[in-house]
Write a structure and sequence with these properties.
This protein is 69% helix and 1% strand. The protein is built from 17 helices and 2 strands. It has helices spanning 4-24, 28-77, 91-130, 145-182, 194-200, 209-247, 251-260, 266-285, 287-305, 309-313, 316-319, 325-344, 346-369, 382-415, 426-451, 457-476, 483-488; strands spanning 420-421, 424-425. It has a two-stranded antiparallel ribbon. Strand 1 (420-421) and strand 2 form a beta hairpin.
C-alpha cells in the first residue's frame, strides 16, 4: 500500500483548513486548538483501528488454538494419531483450513457415534432377551474402529447364543411333543405353564435360559414318566407273552392286541392289566388241560430222544401229574431243553435211524430166506431178487454202521460221556446186537443139523438145551438165541430194533429241574440196552449209564 496518499490527504486537508481559516479570520490560538483536536481525533482513529485489528488477530489466534484443542480431542476419541494444525501465511487461511479439518473429524465422530449407539441398543435388546447382563456399555469418549469392532463381535456372539438357544428350545419343544404323543398326554394338561402352553400351541419363545430350564425340567419329568410306564409295559409284556405261550394264543389275536396297545398311555396300561387278569383267569380254568398238553408234547420229545422211564420219573411235574403254574412252567422248561437237545443230536439220530432200518431189513431178509415154504410158490425170479437184496444189505450195513460209529465216537469225545439210549450206551448196543446175531445164526445152524439127525450125542444134549432156549424165546415173542440177553435185560426183546421197542431215537440223560425228586438209581448191565417198559428203580446204577440231573449237553 502507498503511504504518500495519507501524506497528500493530510497536506490537502491542512491547506484547505488554512484557506478556510483565512476567509473566516480564525485566530491562531483557535487554529492551534483545532489542529491539536484534529491530531487527537486522528490519533484515536488510528489507535481504534489498530486495536480493532489487534482484536481480530487475537480472535483468529484463539480460534486456531480452540481448533487445535478440538482436533486433539477428536483425534483422541477417534484413536487417531495426534497432528498439529498446519500454520499458513495468514491467520485467516490457517483458521479456514483448521475449521475444515475439525469439521471432517467431527463428521466422522458423529457417524461413528450413531453406529455405536445403534449397536448398543441392539445389544441391549439381545441381552434382555437372553436374560444376561449387558456385555458392553456405550462410551462417548471411545469412537474408535476398535470399539465398533468390539460391538460387532459382541453382537455376533449374542446372536449366535440366541440362535443356539432357539435351536435348543425348538429341539426341546419337539422332544416334548413326541413324549406327549408317546404317553398319550393332552397338551391342555399343561395350560397353567405359559412356556409349555406356548410349546403346545407352537408359539415362538424367547431365547432365555429360564425358558430352556423350564423345558428341560418338563422333558426330564416326561422321560421319568416314560421310563416308569416302559418298565410297567415290559413287565406286562413279559407276563402276557408267557401266558400267551402257555395258552397257545393265536398270532392274529396277539397282533390285534399289540396293534391296539402299542403306545404308553394310561388307557393302554389299563388294557394290559385287564388282559393279564383275563389270561390268568383263563389259565386257572385250563390248567389241567394245558399241563396235559405239555406232558404229551414232552413225551413226544422224550420218545424221539429215547429218554428212559427212570429219567422221566425225575421230572415231578410229569411223573406226579401236577397241575399248577409251577408245574406248567417246569414242563415248558423241560420242553425247551429237550427240544434243544434233540436238535443238537439230530445228525446222530438220522445216522442211527439209517443203521436201524438197514439192520431191520437184514433181520427181515434172513427170516424170509430161512423160510423153506417160500420155495413152494411159483416165482422164477425170487432167488435172483434175494441175491440182489443180500448184496445191497451187505453193502449198506457196514457203511451205515461206520457212519453211526464215527458220529457217536465224535459226540462222546466232545462231551466226555457215553451216548445213551433208554439208559444204554448205543455203541455197546450195536456190538451186542452183532454178537446176538452171530449166536442166533449159530443156534439156527445147530438146530437145522439136529433136525436132520446128523449131530453127535454131545451135540444132541446141547441141542436139547438150545431147543428149550428157543422154546422160551418163542414164548417171549423173540427170535431164537435171545434167551440170555432177554433175561439179562429183564425180559426185553433184544433181537428187535429200538423202534419196535417203543423208542425212535436216542439221547443223553435228561436234565433236572426245580421240581424234580432226588435221583433214582437204575440197574443196567454194561453194554446191554434196557427197555423203558421194564426198570428197577432201587438197583445199583450202571457206571456206563449215569443219569445226569443237572443239564442237557
Amino acid at each position: 500500500m502507498d503511504h504518500t496518499v495519507f501524506q497528500r490527504l493530510s497536506q490537502d486537508t491542512f491547506q484547505r483548513l488554512q484557506e478556510l481559516w483565512q476567509e473566516i479570520g480564525t485566530q491562531p490560538s483557535q487554529q492551534e486548538a483545532v489542529l491539536q483536536q484534529l491530531q487527537a481525533d486522528l490519533k484515536n482513529v488510528y489507535e481504534n483501528t489498530v486495536q480493532r485489528h489487534l482484536d481480530e488477530r487475537s480472535r483468529l489466534q484463539k480460534t486456531v488454538q480452540e481448533a487445535q484443542l478440538r482436533l486433539r480431542h477428536l483425534q483422541t476419541i477417534l484413536h487417531f494419531p495426534f497432528t498439529e494444525i498446519v500454520q499458513y501465511s495468514t491467520l485467516s487461511e490457517t483458521v479456514e483450513k483448521a475449521s475444515h479439518t475439525v469439521g471432517q473429524h467431527m463428521q466422522l465422530a458423529e457417524e461413528r457415534e450413531q453406529i455405536l449407539r445403534e449397536r448398543d441398543e441392539h445389544l441391549k435388546r439381545l441381552c434382555q432377551e437372553l436374560e444376561t447382563e449387558k456385555m458392553l456399555s456405550f462410551n462417548a469418549d471411545d469412537l474408535s474402529e476398535n470399539a465398533i469392532s468390539q460391538y460387532t463381535s459382541t453382537i455376533q456372539n449374542a446372536e449366535a447364543l440366541k440362535a443356539q438357544r432357539l435351536r435348543t428350545i425348538e429341539q426341546l419343544s419337539a422332544e416334548i411333543r413326541v413324549l406327549w404323543d408317546e404317553l398319550c398326554i393332552s397338551p391342555a394338561d399343561y395350560s397353567r405353564c405359559p412356556v409349555q402352553c406356548a410349546v403346545a400351541n407352537q408359539q415362538p419363545l424367547f431365547a432365555s435360559q429360564t425358558h430352556i430350564n423350564v423345558l428341560e425340567h418338563a422333558k426330564l419329568q416326561l422321560q421319568h414318566v416314560k421310563a416308569e410306564r416302559t418298565e410297567q409295559f415290559a413287565a406286562y409284556a413279559r407276563d402276557i407273552k408267557g401266558l400267551w405261550n402257555q395258552l397257545e394264543v393265536s398270532d392274529d389275536d396277539r397282533r390285534a392286541f399289540i396293534t391296539n396297545n402299542n403306545r404308553l398311555g394310561m388307557e393302554n396300561l389299563h388294557a394290559c392289566a385287564v388282559e393279564l387278569d383275563r389270561l390268568r383267569s383263563t389259565l386257572q380254568v385250563r390248567m389241567i388241560e394245558l399241563c396235559a398238553a405239555k406232558r404229551e408234547a414232552l413225551e413226544e420229545l422224550w420218545d424221539e430222544a429215547g429218554i428212559s422211564e427212570q429219567e422221566r420219573e425225575l421230572c415231578v411235574a410229569y411223573s406226579q401229574q401236577l397241575a399248577s403254574e409251577e408245574a406248567l412252567a417246569s414242563l415248558s422248561h423241560e420242553i425247551t431243553e429237550a427240544t434243544k437237545y434233540v436238535e443238537s443230536i439230530r445228525p446222530v439220530l438220522r445216522a442211527i435211524q439209517r443203521w436201524e432200518e438197514v439192520w431191520q431189513s437184514k433181520i427181515d431178509f434172513e427170516k424170509r430166506s430161512n423160510d423153506p415154504t417160500r420155495l413152494l410158490a411159483r416165482d422164477p425170479g425170487r432167488l435172483l431178487r434175494e441175491e440182489k437184496e443180500r448184496k445191497s444189505i451187505d453193502r449198506l450195513l457196514p457203511r451205515a454202521e461206520k457212519e453211526v460209529r464215527i458220529l457217536l465216537q465224535r459226540w462222546e469225545t466232545q462231551f466226555n460221556r457215553p451216548f445213551l439210549y433208554h439208559g444204554d450206551r448205543y455203541l455197546t448196543h450195536i456190538d451186542v446186537m452183532k454178537v446176538e446175531e452171530e449166536e442166533r445164526k449159530s443156534l439156527e445152524k445147530e438146530r437145522r443139523v439136529r433136525e436132520k439127525g446128523g449131530s453127535s450125542s454131545s451135540s444132541s444134549g446141547k441141542s436139547g438145551r438150545l431147543t428149550r432156549s428157543a422154546r422160551s424165546e418163542t414164548q417171549l415173542g423173540t427170535t431164537p438165541g435171545r434167551t440170555r440177553s432177554a433175561k439179562a435185560e429183564g425180559g426185553r426183546a433184544v433181537g428187535t430194533t429200538p423202534r419196535q421197542r417203543g423208542g425212535t431215537t436216542l439221547r443223553q440223560p435228561l436234565v433236572g429241574s426245580a421240581l424234580r425228586t432226588p435221583t433214582a438209581s437204575t440197574k443196567d448191565t454194561p453194554g446191554v440196552r434196557r427197555s423203558k417198559r421194564t426198570r428197577n428203580v432201587g438197583a445199583t446204577p450202571n457206571p456206563l449209564t449215569p443219569i445226569n440231573v443237572n443239564t442237557y449237553r
